[in-house]
Amino acid sequence: MNLAILTACLVFALVLIGLEISNATPATGAPVNYLFMAIFVVVGLLVIWSSTATGIKRLHDRDQSGWWMLVFWGVSAIVGLLQETATTPSSKFILDVGNFAVTVWIIIELGCLRGTQGPNRFGADPLEASPQ
After folding, report:
1. Per DSSP, what are the bridge partners of residue 123?
2. Distance of CA 65 to the CA centre of its chain
């Protein structure tokens, strides 16, 4: 089973469990809220790990270094932090456009462009038929 699909199913299941826990306890149930928060921290770390691993695998398919994931994550984080500190509507708009451009770049780079045809420095082309 694809790791991304498995992670998405896990996240969905944990969200449903978390909603049931929060609905089943009284509003003063602080320990349950900490449990709920801990579940989401663990799930968030799993999603970050899974998406990073998948992105690195995709970059290797395109014969690029996995360190590009650091650039993708870093640029997105920096633009997000700058958006939080922007004070004027025009600067927020410019950062929104920049964030959108980075997002489109990541989607095109990892999701739309074809991998290297034939073998590359990271291994064989996964789309080539393997000899039997």
Report:
1. 120
2. 18
Using alpha carbons, list the distances in angstroms from residue 6 to 9, 41, 46, 48, 110. Answer: 5, 17, 11, 14, 19
Q: What is the pLDDT of residues 66-98, one digit of tens each?
A: 899 888 888 888 888 888 888 888 988 988 888
DSSP annotation of 58 reads: H
Residue 123 makes CB contacts below 8 A (sequence gap 6+) with 60
Q: Which of 120, 3, 128 is nearest to 64 (CA)?
A: 120
Q: Is pTM beyond 0.90 here? A: no
Beta-carbon-side half-sphere exposure of residue 35 (alpha carbons within 13 Å): 12
Q: How far apart are CA 97 and CA 80, in angstroms?
A: 12
Torsion of CA 124, 106, 80, 35, to 10 degrees: -50
